[in-house]
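Hello,

Our lab assistant flagged a job as stuck in the queue for most of the afternoon. It eventually completed. Since we weren't sure the result was trustworthy after the delay, we are filing this so someone can double-check. Below is the sequence as submitted and the structure that was eventually returned. Let us know if re-running is recommended.
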Amino acid sequence: MRNIGRPSLKTVLKTTTVAGLAAVMLSSGIPGQVVQSYAAPVSVTAPQAPSFADVVSAVSPAVVSVRVQSDAQPVSDDTSSFSFGGRGFDQLPDDHPLKRFFREFGGQVPGAPGDRNNRNQDRAERNGPRGQDGNRPHRLRPAAQGSGFFISEDGYVVTNNHVVSDGSAYTVVLNDGTELEAKLVGKDSRTDLAVLKVDATSRKFTYVNFADDSKVRVGDWVVAVGNPFGLGGTVTAGIVSARGRDIGSGPYDDYIQVDAAVNRGNSGGPTFNLSGEVVGINTAIFSPSGGNVGIAFAIPSSTAKDVVADLMKDGKVDRGWLGVQIQPVTQDIADSLGLKEATGALVVAPQEGSPGQKAGIKEGDVITAVNGQPIKDARDLAKRVAAFGPNTKVEVDLWRDGKAQKIPVTLGNLQSDEAAAATPKQSDAPAPSSDKALASLGITVAPAEDGSGLSVTDVDPDSEAAARGLKTGEKIVSVNNRKVTSAADVGKVLDQARKDGRTRALFQVAGENNTSRFVALPINEG
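-- returned structure --
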């Protein structure tokens, strides 16, 4: 039997080498070259993202920081010192914790000999009073800081009213660190705008213009530049999140909402479009924590442009004044009044002696147009009237008693006439004492003590009246613009409304401080 031995290592290596060379030759037909392989770095071709560098470099010289100081009377020379009422620390027992605290930590006991406050007092007594009235002179102290921007080459600066409102002295800091003193030209609390003026006759400033914000669309890129937390020129970017925001800050709310990072100190700073034009002025943020959460509000340039021009002209803003308290028209209110659409502004009450009252506008009227221009809502009416100058004659379209009417009105001056207050009318008619239940509405009423209207004595918590916010203690002044002094009066008005095919009735309700509102309640039986 033939014995087959194992091949040697040398034989195996030779065979493997020959086979490898043969494989290389067979795959290519010619002798091949073996090359070592290396991994390549990852490289992805992505769409080019927009850069804001060109916009920022162009507008940055026009954006400034605003420092505000107020004229404050200091309590003492040393802001770190403090005092308490009652007996002095020097009268405390030696083992008292507070006295021991000052002694152990190396401080002087307030009121004791050698105390710095005592030394200051001794010095003041030796030197005499520093002011004519015997008081120490006032010192300017930091009060606020914000942002702003030049709107003209001769040094007019736009910022927020709430930044400068409490100030006595103002400093504008340019993006290169130059500090210039400024004076307050004018401010407008209703739009939260203010204008400062830098006096530098030998210098021309880089300035920016307002954009046509009617072309601004939700989703457009915007760049915010400002002075957050006093850090100086800081740039953030985002998009327009919404338009026409009403945050309840004033009668002319029409904010642009952006998600660019805006923080404390950005107030008064501009928000730019990619053309370097100001589309809005940053004025408020929504933040549970006080920091940026991506919800900021800017005054639109269309609002700011006219206000700033007026402030630059004579330091004030004159607006037309109608003098009526108004509220929005809801669909329920529209149904109760026979209006086809829930548009216009519902007059709650005209102010005594106002242009609106003099022209014959009454509570319960719905203002549907001014000079032929339809009114969308109460806010729209406020803005349109304010856009007219004082003493302007306008034609007001009303909806009253199911019919359209036109009334000519000469507007007043909001600035000078706004002090006119509404005086509630009272009647000397005797007041019956019995309660009457209006079961179908879920309310119980009794004649008001002043003889004007009906006091709500009870509200069914499961009723529509409760759902609409009607409360015990409030007063029903009228129903469908008809004065009511008894439950029978209400019943007559409701019966007529049903005959007219109405499903709801409009109740005028007076709450605390005689503030009125309208509530539409269903009147279907059962």
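-- support follow-up --
The delay was a queue issue, not a problem with the job. The result is valid. The first strand starts at residue 63 and ends at 72. The chain has a mean pLDDT of 78.
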